[in-house]
Amino acid sequence: MNIRFLETFLWVARLRSFSSAADKLCTTQAAVSNRIATLERDLGVRLFERDLRNVSLTPAGERALAQAETIVQLAADLRLGIGDPHRLRGRVSIGVIDTIVYAWLPQLMEQGYAAHPDVDLDLTVDTSLAVARLLMDRQVDLALIAGPVLAPGYRNIELCSYECIWAAAPRLGLHGRRLTLEDLTAYPVFAFSRGSQPHQNVLKLIEAAGLDPHAVRILNSNSLATITRLVRDGMGVAVFPEVVMREMRERGELVQLDVEARLPRLHLHAVYREEPGSTLPQLIARMAAEIAAGEDKPPGAAPHRE
């Protein structure tokens, strides 16, 4: 029995679509249909009910699902356990947030290709909330986000945490003295995307300080590049993970502000689905954890330089 055909069966069952399974497996819908037809002939049963809108498992398909998952997982474990790791092949779709892009994503890509040259890494950069949705919709295989994802069937691996700090352009003249939140209300506050951890933390600080939330102009963007550009140009103050502004601080483009209201650290996780076929996402997640471990420094530690 062809393991690839069983893998195709699993993806059609998960995605409920021949075309979506074809996209996932980087093949054609005709190839997927042929694999399923061959598997059905080999097993002597009909695995799927098909109509114009839906694909669903038959009772025989439901019974075959668990056994197919076990066989595919055992085959993957066998390849991983006794095979040459450099011969692993496939494609891993990774959803990642800007903070990791600024920190150690280049190192992960470099080590990933060096360790597994036949594995392609596809990147999608977005907010943690958006990437988590992509993971749950099976649009990405691995999420590197400010997590975790608290849902059944998902594995969360702690990566690292970063101090979050207040920053501004030197031209605003806010550095070198102790500031309160009220001192910042004269300026727009850039706090990442609405609903993100930094955004929620800023709202909590404003509430705890007893300030009128309407008196603080909070501006949101899901683009860290956009925020850093506007803040460097003196358009307001911002909340950044410390790692994001290291180089800009060294170049004198941004300064760290001494604000009484301290921000919680940003905790990052690698998240993937625990299921047959998750070998590659698991390997990349572990690699990310090893790289990120060197980044998890307490406040006041020497800046990391690549």
TrEMBL record:
<dbReference type="InterPro" id="IPR000847">
    <property type="entry name" value="LysR_HTH_N"/>
</dbReference>
<dbReference type="InterPro" id="IPR036388">
    <property type="entry name" value="WH-like_DNA-bd_sf"/>
</dbReference>
<dbReference type="Pfam" id="PF00126">
    <property type="entry name" value="HTH_1"/>
</dbReference>
<dbReference type="InterPro" id="IPR005119">
    <property type="entry name" value="LysR_subst-bd"/>
</dbReference>
<keyword id="KW-0804">Transcription</keyword>
<keyword id="KW-0238">DNA-binding</keyword>
<comment type="similarity">
    <text>Belongs to the LysR transcriptional regulatory family.</text>
</comment>
<dbReference type="InterPro" id="IPR036390">
    <property type="entry name" value="WH_DNA-bd_sf"/>
</dbReference>
<dbReference type="Pfam" id="PF03466">
    <property type="entry name" value="LysR_substrate"/>
</dbReference>
<protein>
    <submittedName>
        <fullName>LysR family transcriptional regulator</fullName>
    </submittedName>
</protein>
<feature type="domain" description="HTH lysR-type">
    <location>
        <begin position="1"/>
        <end position="58"/>
    </location>
</feature>
<keyword id="KW-0805">Transcription regulation</keyword>
